[in-house]
C-alpha cells in the first residue's frame, strides 16, 4: 500500500506568510528514505523557495493547494547544501556548471530522479510571482517553476502554473515524460524540453508570455489536443519523430512578453498590459541550438488536424540566420489538414543546401490577415522538394506565390509538385 506523508505532519502551516520550504522538504525526504510514496499538500497557500523532488516520490497538490514561490531569488540556492543526494556539477556547454548554475533555480527541481510525479487537484497551483533576479537570464528572470534534469519516468498533471519567473517547465536530458491536463498562465515558456526521449503532452492549456511548447533535439515526441495562446511562438521545436495533432493555436497572446517591460515593472513583478507586445509571432518555428550533439537527424515532423488563428507566420525555418537555429537544419516537415487564418507572412524556409528541406502540405487552407502587406505564400531558399496537394490560399493579390531561390544548389532545385492547388504559382529566382 502506498504510504502518504502529509506536509502538515512535518510542520508545514498554510497561510503563515513565512517560508515553509524546510517542512515540505522534510516530508519529501522522509518519503524518499522510506522507499517512496506520496507527499500530500493540503489546501492553502505555502510560501516556498526551492524544493527537491526525489525518486519514487509523488508530490500531490490537493484541492486548492498553492505553492507560492518566494520573491527573494536567494531562497532558491540552498539545494547545494543537500546531504541526502549531494548535487554534482554537470558539464553543459550551454550553461556553465550545468544544474548547479543559477539559471536552473526553480520552485520544484529534480536531478537524476526516477518514477516521479507532480499531480494537482482542482484549484492547485504553483505560483512563481514573477520573481525578479538581477543575476538571472536577461538580467531579470528568476527561477523556473519546475526543472528536471536526467530524470526518467515523469508524470506531470492537473495543476496550474501561474506567473512563472522563467520557464514553467524546464526538462532536460530526460526520458519517458508524460504531461497532461496542466494549465500554464502568463510567465515565459510553458513546457521547454531539451534532449529528451519519449515525450507525450496532451490535453493542456497554455496562455504564455513566451513560447508555449519549446525545445530541441527531442526524440519521439507528441503534442495532442492542446490549446495554445502565445505572445511569441506557439511551437518552437526541433527534433526527430515529432507529432502535433488536434491542437488549436489562437493569437494574439493574452499575456504580453515580459522582455519589453520597464526595469521598474520587472522588479515589481508587475503583470503585463496592453502596451507590451502580444502578437503571436509564429505557429511553428524550427529550433536547433548549436552546441549539442544531436540524438538523430532532425526530421519526420508532422503537424496535422490543427488550426492556427491570427499568427503572424505559420512556419519559419531560418537555418544559420539566428543563433537558435545553427546546429543542423530540418530534413522534412508535413502539414496535413491544417488551417491558418489571419496570417501576415505565411511561410519562410531558409534551408541548408547540404541537408535541404522536404516540405509537404496536404489538405490545408491559408488565409492572409485583412490589411496584410503583399507577400508570397512561401519564401524558400535551398530546399529539396515542395509538395502541395489540395491547398487553398486566399487573400493574396493575384496568385499565391511560392518564391524559390537556390543559393547553393543547382538552379533547377527544388522539385515542386502541385496537385489541386488552383491559384498557386511558382517563381524561381
Helices and strands in order:
Elements: E1 4-6, H1 21-34, E2 37-41, E3 44-48, E4 51-52, E5 57-61, E6 65-69, E7 106-111, E8 114-120, E9 125-127, E10 144-149, E11 152-157, E12 160-162, E13 169-172, E14 175-180, E15 183-185, E16 191-194, E17 197-202, E18 205-208, E19 213-224, E20 227-230, E21 233-245, E22 248-250, H2 263-268, E23 280-286, E24 299-304, E25 307-309, E26 311-318, E27 332-336, E28 339-343, E29 347-350, E30 358-368, E31 378-381, E32 385-394, E33 400-405, E34 415-419, E35 424-428
Parallel strand pairs: 1-2, 2-5, 3-6, 4-7, 5-8, 6-9, 7-10, 8-11, 9-12, 10-13, 11-14, 12-15, 13-16, 14-17, 15-18, 16-19, 17-19, 18-20, 19-21, 20-22, 21-23, 21-24, 22-25, 23-26, 24-27, 25-28, 26-29, 27-30, 28-30, 29-31, 30-32, 31-33, 32-34, 33-35
Keywords:
35 strands, mainly beta, Pectate Lyase C-like, 429 residues, 35-stranded parallel beta sheet, 2 domains, 2 helices
Task: Describe the protein in words.
With 429 residues, the chain is mainly beta. The protein folds into 2 domains: 1-183, Single-stranded right-handed beta-helix, Pectin lyase-like (Pectate Lyase C-like, 3 Solenoid), CATH 2.160.20.10; 186-429, Pectate Lyase C-like (3 Solenoid), CATH 2.160.20. Helices cover 5% and strands 45% of the residues. The protein has helices at residues 21-34, 263-268; strands at 4-6, 37-41, 44-48, 51-52, 57-61, 65-69, 106-111, 114-120, 125-127, 144-149, 152-157, 160-162, 169-172, 175-180, 183-185, 191-194, 197-202, 205-208, 213-224, 227-230, 233-245, 248-250, 280-286, 299-304, 307-309, 311-318, 332-336, 339-343, 347-350, 358-368, 378-381, 385-394, 400-405, 415-419, 424-428. The protein has a 35-stranded parallel beta sheet that branches. The mean pLDDT is 95.
Amino acid at each position: 500500500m502506498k504510504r502518504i506523508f502529509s506536509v502538515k505532519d512535518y510542520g508545514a502551516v498554510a497561510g503563515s506568510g513565512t517560508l515553509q520550504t524546510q517542512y515540505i522538504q522534510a516530508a519529501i525526504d522522509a518519503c524518499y528514505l522510506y522507499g517512496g510514496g506520496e507527499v500530500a499538500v493540503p489546501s492553502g497557500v505555502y510560501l516556498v523557495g526551492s524544493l527537491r523532488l526525489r525518486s519514487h516520490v509523488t508530490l500531490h497538490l490537493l484541492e486548492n493547494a498553492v505553492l507560492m514561490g518566494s520573491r527573494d531569488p536567494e531562497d532558491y540556492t540552498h539545494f547545494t547544501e543537500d546531504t541526502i543526494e549531494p548535487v554534482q556539477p554537470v558539464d553543459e556547454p550551454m550553461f556553465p556548471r550545468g544544474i548547479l548554475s543559477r539559471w536552473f533555480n526553480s520552485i520544484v527541481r529534480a536531478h537524476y530522479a526516477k518514477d516521479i510525479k507532480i499531480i494537482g487537484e482542482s484549484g492547485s497551483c504553483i505560483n512563481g510571482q514573477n520573481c525578479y533576479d538581477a543575476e538571472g537570464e536577461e538580467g531579470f528572470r528568476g527561477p523556473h517553476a519546475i526543472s528536471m534534469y536526467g530524470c526518467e519516468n515523469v508524470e506531470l498533471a492537473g495543476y496550474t502554473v501561474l506567473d512563472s519567473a522563467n520557464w514553467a517547465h524546464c526538462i532536460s536530458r530526460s526520458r519517458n515524460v508524460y504531461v497532461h491536463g496542466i494549465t500554464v498562465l502568463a510567465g515565459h515558456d510553458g513546457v521547454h524540453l531539451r534532449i529528451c526521449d519519449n515525450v507525450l503532452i496532451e490535453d493542456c492549456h497554455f496562455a504564455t508570455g513566451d513560447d508555449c511548447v519549446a525545445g530541441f533535439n527531442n526524440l519521439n515526441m507528441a503534442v495532442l489536443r492542446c490549446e495554445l495562446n502565445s505572445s511569441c511562438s506557439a511551437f518552437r521545436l526541433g527534433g526527430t519523430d515529432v507529432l502535433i495533432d488536434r491542437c488549436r493555436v489562437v493569437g494574439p497572446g493574452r499575456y504580453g512578453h515580459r522582455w519589453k517591460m520597464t526595469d521598474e515593472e520587472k522588479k515589481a513583478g508587475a503583470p503585463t498590459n496592453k502596451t507590451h507586445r502580444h502578437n503571436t509571432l509564429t505557429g511553428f518555428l524550427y529550433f536547433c541550438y548549436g552546441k549539442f550533439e544531436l540524438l538523430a537527424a532532425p526530421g519526420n515532423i508532422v503537424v496535422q488536424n490543427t488550426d492556427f488563428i491570427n499568427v503572424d507566420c505559420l512556419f519559419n525555418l531560418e537555418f544559420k540566420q539566428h543563433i537558435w537555429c545553427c546546429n543542423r537544419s530540418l530534413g522534412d516537415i508535413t502539414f496535413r489538414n491544417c488551417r491558418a487564418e489571419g496570417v501576415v507572412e505565411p511561410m519562410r524556409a531558409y534551408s541548408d543546401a547540404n541537408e535541404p528541406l522536404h516540405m509537404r502540405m496536404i489538405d490545408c487552407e491559408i488565409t492572409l490577415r485583412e490589411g496584410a502587406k503583399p507577400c508570397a505564400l512561401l519564401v524558400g531558399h535551398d530546399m529539396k522538394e515542395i509538395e502541395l496537394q489540395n491547398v487553398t490560399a486566399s487573400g493574396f493579390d493575384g496568385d499565391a506565390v511560392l518564391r524559390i531561390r537556390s543559393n547553393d544548389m543547382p538552379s533547377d532545385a527544388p522539385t515542386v509538385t502541385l496537385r489541386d492547388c488552383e491559384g498557386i504559382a511558382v517563381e524561381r529566382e
